[in-house]
Amino acid sequence: MDATVSTPRPGGWHRFANPGRFLRLAGRVTPPIAWAGGILTAAGLLWGLFIAPADWQQGEAVRIMYLHVPSAWLASAGYFGLALCALSSLVWRHPLADLAAVEIGPVGAGFAALCLATGSLWGRPTWGTYWVWDARLTSMLVLFFLYLGHIALIRAFDDPERGYRAAAILALIGAVDLPIIHFSVQWWNTLHQGNSISLTSAPKMYIGMLAPLLVSAIGFTLLFAALVLARLSAAVMERRTRALLLAQVRSA
Amino acid sequence: MNPIPYVIAAYAVGVVVVGWLCIDAVLRLRSARRRLAAAEAGRVRR
C-alpha cells in the first residue's frame, strides 16, 4: 500500500494563486487583450464620432454616449469585480484576491471619474446644466467616492492584512450601490434617461448607433481587463522582488 | 447651444484618463520587470 499522502492539486481559480503560473498566463494574454481593446475602442469611438448619425432630439451631443456609456458600465462592473475579490478574500482566502482588489480600485475610479465628467459635459447641452442631484447621477457619484474610500482604506494600515480586510468589508457593503445605480431610473423620477439597452428586452436604439456603442463597449472592456492584468502582474513582481531583497538582507 | 465643444471636451477627457491609466500601467510593469530581474540576478550571483 502506498503510504505517501499527496497534496491535492488546487482546482478552479486557486490554480492562479501560484505567482509564477499567474505571471506566465498574464504575460501571454495581456498584450493581445490590450491591442484588441485599443483597436476596438478607437474604432468604436471614431465610428461614433464621424459615421454614426446624430440623434433627432439631442443632435451632435449624443456622440458623447460612445464614451460615457461604456465608462459607466465598466465603473459598475469594476466595482462588482472588487466585491467578488472581497468575497474571495474573506471566504476563500485567495492569495491574489487582495492584490487584485488593490489594482482594480484605481482603474475603476478612473472610469467612474470619466463617466461623471463625460456625463456632465453631455448634460450641459442636453439638460442645460452640468449637474443635478438626480438619483442616477448621485448614486454614480457615491460609487466614485466608494472607489476613493477603498483606495484610501486598503493603504491606510501599517499591517497590509488589516487594510485588505477593512477594504474588503467596504467593497461588500458598497456593492449595495450597484443595483441602486441600475434601477435608479426606474425607482425614481429622474432627469437621466431610462436604460436603452437591457439583457432581457430588445434594444430601444437605432442599429446605426447601437453597433458603434457595442464595439466601443467591448473595446473598453478589453482595455479595462488588460489594465488590471498589467497592474496585477506588476504588483506580483514587486512582491516577489521585495521577498528576494528581504531574503538577501537576512542572509547577509 | 452648439454641442461640438462639449463633445470635443468629453473625448479629450477620455483620451487623458484612459491614456494616463495605460501609460502608468506600462511604466509600472516595465519597472517591476526590471527590478525583479535585478533582484533575481543578485540572488544567482550569491
Describe the protein's architecture and organization.
The complex is a heterodimer of chains A (252) and B (46). Chain A has 252 residues and is an all-alpha fold. In chain A, 73% of the residues lie in helices and 0% in strands. In chain A, α2 packs across α4 and α4 runs antiparallel to α6. Chain A has one domain. The N and C termini of chain A lie far apart (46 Å). The longest helix of chain A has 45 residues. Chain A contains 7 helices and no strands. Chain B has 46 residues and is mainly alpha-helical. Chain B is 91% helix and 0% strand. Chain B has 1 helix and no strands. The mean pLDDT of chain B is 92.
Helices and strands in order:
The complex is a heterodimer of chains A (252) and B (46).
Chain A: H1 19-51, H2 65-92, H3 97-127, H4 135-154, H5 160-174, H6 177-187, H7 207-251
Chain B: H1 4-45
* Stretches with pLDDT under 50, minimum 5 residues of chain A: 1-8
Q: How far apart are the termini of chain A? A: 46 Å
Largest sheet of chain A: none
**Tally of individual domains of chain A:** 1
Number of distinct helices of chain A: 7
Shape, principal axes of CA atoms of chain B: rod-shaped
Name the structural class of chain A.
mainly alpha
Mean pLDDT score of chain B: 92
Distance between the termini of chain B: 70 Å
Q: Over the alpha carbons, how many angstroms does the gyration radius of chain B reach? A: 20 Å
Largest sheet composition of chain B: none
